[in-house]
Amino acid sequence: MTSSIKLKAQTHWSLNPSLIINTPARMKKTVAFSLVFLSPLVAAQDLTDGQVDVVSARLAESALQSWEIGTHLQTILELNATTYSVLNTKVSLPPPSTVPSNEQSALAPFFQLTKQVVSNRTTANNNTAGAQPFLPDGSAADPASIGVGVLIANLTGQDAGQVNYAGAATDQLDYLLNVVPRTSDGAISHRVSEVQLWSDFVYMVPPFLAYYGVTTKNRTLVAESYNQIKLYRQYLRDNTTGMWRHVLMGTSGNDPGFWSTGNGWAAAGMLRVITTIRQSEFANTFTNEQTDLANWVQEIHTATYPHLDATNVFTNYADQPSTATGNFYDAASTALLAGTVYRAAILLKQHASVPHAEKSRKTLFSTNGTAPDNNSGSFTGYAHFDSNGWLMPVVNPHSYGVQGTQSPEGQAFVVQLHAAHRDWAAAGSPGENGALSSVHVGPTALLLGVLTSLAVIAL
C-alpha cells in the first residue's frame, strides 16, 4: 500500500437530507472512537426489519456525495423495489413503465433523489449546456453512479414535462464518452483532471453504460460497458495475487495496495453488468463477455477470501495485517464483499466462497444478548453497530487509508448484504451445505472481541 492518501473529491453541491426520505431527526452523533469488535459473539442472526429501517435511515440522512447517492439508489432497488433491480433474476429489461402498486412507496425516496439531482444540475454545473455530469465532482466516474436511477425515472415517466431525465442522462453519457480523458487504449479516466484509474470505477460507470444501452437498444454501449471493465482489469489486476490494485496512474494519489473496498466495488459492478446483459435482448450475442465477467468476479473472491483471518472481518487492505500503516479492520468492505458472494451464488452458481460470506455475515450481525423481535430497531449488544445503527469499524469513505466513524457507503453495504442473503435464502441457499460445515461461532472467536478505546461524545 502507499503512504500517500488522497481524499475523494467532495461535491460542492449536496442534497437536503430532509427531502430524501422521511426519517427520524438526526440521532446523536458518536465521534472520536476507535472501536474494534472483531468477532461473532453469541447469537448469529439476520437483521430485523426494524434494524434494517434504522440502518437505511442513517444511509438516507448521510448519503450526500455523488457516489453515495448512486449507491443509495441501488440499495433501494435491491431491498424493496426489486422489479427495477437488475439483480432480480425474475425480471427482464427494459423494466415496466408503470411502477407496481406494491413498490410505489419504496420508490418514493428513490424518485425524490433523482428529481432533486436532475432539477439542480444546471445550477450546480454553472449553467453549462450539453455534455456534463449529473453533479460537479473531481471524479469523472462517481456522478455516473446516479445514472441508472435517472434512466428508471425517465422510463417510468416521472415528472413528465417538468424534469428532463432523458436529457440529463444523455448529457452524462456524452460527458463520459467525449469529454473525460482516457488512456491510449481507451480506458475512461476515473478522474477529471488527469488520467487515473480507480477500482471504484467499475461500480460507477459500466452499470450505467450497460443499462443505457439495454434500455435504448444500443448494442455499442452494452459492448462498451464490458470493454471498460476489461481495460480496467488489465491495468489494475495483479497477476500474482489475483486482487485488484486501488489507484494507478496520474501524478499524485496513487494507491497500489489491494484495498478491500475497491475489490468489492469491482465485483459488485461486474455482477450488475452481467445481469443487465443477461436479462436483455442482447443476452445471446454477449455470451463470451458474460463468461468473462463471471470468471472475473470469481477471481476476486478466490483472491481476497484467503486473507480473511479468524475475526471474519477484512482489513482495509486485504493482504496486510491490521497493524500495518493505514490498515485496520473494516466492516464496510466485509459487508460489500459478502453481499457479492451471495449474489454470485444465486446468479453465477459460484459457491466456493459462501462459507466465508456466512462467517462474515454472522459476525457482523451477531449480538451478545437475546435476539430482538422483528420490529425492534435496537442494536444494544451488537459488536459491529453502535446504538444509532452505524456500522463499525469502517474506513473513512473520504480518505481511504484512515479509519472513520460513520460511513454512508458502509450503511448501504449492510443493507445490500441483508438483501443479498434474503434472496440467497429464497433461492434455496445454494452452497449452504458447505457453509454449514465450515462455520463455527465459539468461545475462541468470542475472546477475539477487542475494545481498544472508547470516547463517546453525544452531540
From TrEMBL:
Gene Ontology biological process: carbohydrate metabolic process
Assigned keywords, A-Z: Hydrolase
Protein's UniProt keywords contain Hydrolase: yes
Pfam (any one): Glyco_hydro_88
Taxonomy, superkingdom: Eukaryota
InterPro entries named in the record: 6-hairpin_glycosidase_sf, 6hp_glycosidase-like_sf, Glyco_hydro_88
GO molecular function, one term: hydrolase activity
Name of the featured protein: Glycoside hydrolase family 105 protein
